[in-house]
Amino acid sequence: MHSRDPNLYNVSNNNDLLVKMPIRKPYADTRLPRFLETQVLALRPVKSQAQIAAEAGFTNPNMISMIKSGGTRLPLDRVPALAKALDVDPRRLLQLAVEQLAGATAARTFDEIFGTIVTLNEIAWLKELREASDHADPALTTRARSSLRAIFGK
Predict the structure, then answer these.
(1) Rounded Cα–Cα distance for residues 58 and 78 (Å)
(2) pTM across the whole model
(3) What is the mean pLDDT of the chain?
(4) Same structural domain for residues 87 and 138?
(5) CA neighbor of 35 nearest in space, from 77, 88, 75
(6) What is the pLDDT, as a whole number, of residue 49?
(7) How many alpha carbons fall within 13 Å on the CB side of residue 15?
(8) Which of 45-54, 67-76, 110-119 has the lowest mean pLDDT?
(9) Is the pLDDT of residue 78 over 90?
(10) Which of 62, 81, 127, 131 could, after both became Cys, cross-link 56 (CB 3.0–4.6 A)?
(11) Helices (H) and strands (E) in the chain, counts
(12) How many domains in the chain?
């Protein structure tokens, strides 16, 4: 009997020859798995991962785990339903899904052609900025930029 970390290797015993192969998780390095993990953890007190999967229309309740691990990508047709199940902005989720599907370069091209996706939270920030400035269209000065970045600890 061989002991192994199931997260690191698939083990195949072919004619008594032990072969260790790294588990392939092609989407693990994209931003979507981390985003999904954060959202699922935030919802844990009110709904399970299986409930989220069902609300998103996945027939396999493990699909959320597979996306979180980077083993599979989020299908674009599931973005609206998953965004609703997670209570997140569908535009943000679409942005991450496109990046996952086509890569960061393609996502930047998408932004260049269609414009930057602005989330509902960003729209709220813009509305507040306009109200706070009496719709004066203030320039982003070095001081204003520093103040804004300081809010986020940068």
Answers:
(1) 8
(2) 0.67
(3) 86
(4) no
(5) 88
(6) 95
(7) 0
(8) 110-119
(9) yes
(10) 81
(11) 8, 2
(12) 2
